[in-house]
């Protein structure tokens, strides 16, 4: 794993340059994208670079990691809504080339169609990841099988509790989500994982220095040949 550290702003800008380089070389690249607070500065920088004419997503395709089950894009807590508002409407990507897993799949077989769609598009060139405090990537919580494809997950009560601040009440927080699996993520040609803050330091240490094992999903990234971590000084403080 390659590790890049700096301030949050510096590493977000460096990560943005990966997109500039990739899209210059391969304008039709397939991008794997993430939600959450971590990529917000990266997305703002991509919007700035796009407006400045330094990068174009006009021929790119995107596939997001995950979505809540039962929410459609009009719900302000859906990940589709998040992506439209934090990235897609600020860059020149064609709306029909952006993909977020459907929150309305009925079972894992239908969810796994997402893997087939990604493969048909040529596979992900650059996958962006954040990381949960327990090492989750996407909604792949500890002990998710290594060979998992896109699938439905039951959210833990602690995840629902953590997210309830965004909803009117706990009852409105979805009970399930659909996420790319570990296998789906590992298929990407290159992977960027970003993490900021002291709260992520422990899990970053396990991710980088621990044994790769499914109890820490992000540690499995050690088994991939092209992973770069973009960390602020706090997240890197235990390395
Ligand atoms: C987002 C996702 C999650 C987040 C992770 C970190 O699509 O799949 O795994 O990347 O929970 O979230 P933040 O960035 O809010 O700390």
List the helices and strands and how they pair.
Elements: E1 2-6, H1 8-25, E2 30-33, H2 40-51, E3 61-64, E4 66-68, H3 79-86, E5 98-99, H4 108-111, H5 113-120, E6 126-129, E7 151-154, H6 157-163, E8 176-179, H7 182-186, E9 190-195, H8 201-209, E10 227-232
Parallel strand pairs: 1-10, 2-3, 2-6, 3-5, 6-9, 9-10
Antiparallel strand pairs: 4-8, 7-8
The site of fructose -6-phosphate (F6R) has 14 residues, from loops.
Defining traits:
239 residues, Rossmann fold, 3-stranded antiparallel sheet, alpha/beta, 7-stranded parallel sheet, 8 helices
If you had to describe this structure to a student in words, what would you say it looks like?
The protein has 239 residues and is of the alpha/beta class. The protein is built from eight helices and ten strands. The strands form two sheets. It has a seven-stranded parallel sheet, with helices on one face. α8 links the parallel β9 and β10. The structure holds fructose -6-phosphate. Fructose -6-phosphate binds next to loops.
């Amino acid at each position: 794993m390659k590790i890049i550290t700096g301030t949050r702003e510096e590493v977000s800008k460096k990560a943005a340059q990966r997109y500039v380089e990739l899209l210059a070389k391969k304008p039709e690249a397939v991008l794997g994208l993430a939600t959450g607070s971590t990529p917000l500065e990266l997305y703002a920088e991509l919007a700035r670079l796009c407006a400045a004419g330094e990068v174009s997503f006009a021929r790119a395709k995107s596939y997001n990691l995950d979505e809540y089950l039962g929410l459609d894009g009009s719900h302000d807590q859906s990940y589709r809504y998040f992506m439209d508002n934090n990235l897609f409407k600020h860059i020149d990507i064609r709306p029909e080339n952006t993909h977020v897993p459907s929150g309305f799949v009925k079972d894992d077989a239908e969810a796994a169609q997402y893997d087939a769609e990604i493969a048909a598009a040529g596979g992900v060139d650059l996958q962006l990841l954040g990381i949960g405090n327990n090492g989750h990537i996407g909604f792949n919580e500890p002990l998710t099988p290594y060979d998992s494809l896109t699938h439905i997950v039951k959210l833990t009560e602690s995840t629902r509790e953590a997210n309830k601040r965004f909803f009117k009440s706990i009852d409105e927080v979805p009970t399930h989500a659909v996420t790319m699996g570990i296998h789906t993520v590992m298929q990407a040609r290159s992977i960027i994982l970003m993490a900021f803050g002291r709260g992520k330091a422990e899990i970053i240490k396990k991710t980088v220095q621990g044994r790769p094992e499914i109890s820490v999903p992000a540690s499995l990234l050690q088994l991939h040949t092209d992973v770069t971590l973009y960390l602020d000084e706090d997240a890197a403080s235990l390395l």
